[in-house]
Amino acid sequence: xxxxxxxxxxxxxxxxxxxxxxxxxxxxxxxxxxxxxxxxxxxxxxxxxxxxxxxxxxxxxxxxxxxxxxxxxxxxxxxxxxxxxxxxxxxxxxxxxxxxxxxxxxxxxxxxxxxxxxxxxxxxxxxxxxxxxxxxxxxxxxxxxxxxxxxxxxxxxxxxxxxxxxxxxxxxxxxxxxxxxxxxxxxxxxxxxxxxxxxxxxxxxxxxxxxxxxxxx
Length: 217
Prior knowledge:
38% of the residues are buried. This protein has helices at 15-31, 57-65, 69-85, 102-113, 117-130, 138-147, 152-159, 165-177, 200-215, and strands at 2-10, 35-43, 55-56, 97-98, 185-188, 192-195. The strands form 2 sheets. Strands 2-1-5-6 form a 4-stranded mixed beta sheet. The chain has a two-stranded antiparallel sheet with strand order 3-4. It has a single domain, classed as Glutaredoxin (3-Layer(aba) Sandwich), CATH 3.40.30.10. The longest helix has 17 residues, at 15-31. β1, α1 and β2 (35-43) form a beta-alpha-beta unit. By secondary structure, it is an alpha+beta fold. It holds the Pfam family DSBA. It comes from Halomonas qinghailakensis. GO terms for molecular function: oxidoreductase activity.
């Protein structure tokens, strides 16, 4: 069986990252063990200059894209419908605030050392899009860490410190230099970048192609 590394560059504040990961899961279900895929989450900040209190999401999107509130709400509802079809909880998507996620990424870096990063990523997606909670709130990080079997005290302590800050910044810089300017970004075998929340069949074809190339080396 071919082993294949996939780096998923993502932000917990990105709706298409949650959707993209679910489609990636669907691709793995289709492959059914055909390829041994090893996933590594990598950080990206959509709102790196956002203050801690954040900004109401529709207000933020209107300012960012120069569109009116009605059109931005419609686009958000369309995203919510896509998420719902995939079984994702986006019920709080319109109530969420645009937030900085640096502290969440630091706690996720720690979760990776405990082999619980994917579980925590998914819990934070649900906290943000489902419950409109702030993903970098130390108490939210504590709650979600406990939920996925991690030490909540450690998670909260990391969130209130600067631990893993250098690791996150270095990873962000590395993948920006690799050409990732928007998320989600799937990097296959460190060589091929697939941008956006592509359908499962597109991901299946790409994974198979790279695995076949590696097998023929």
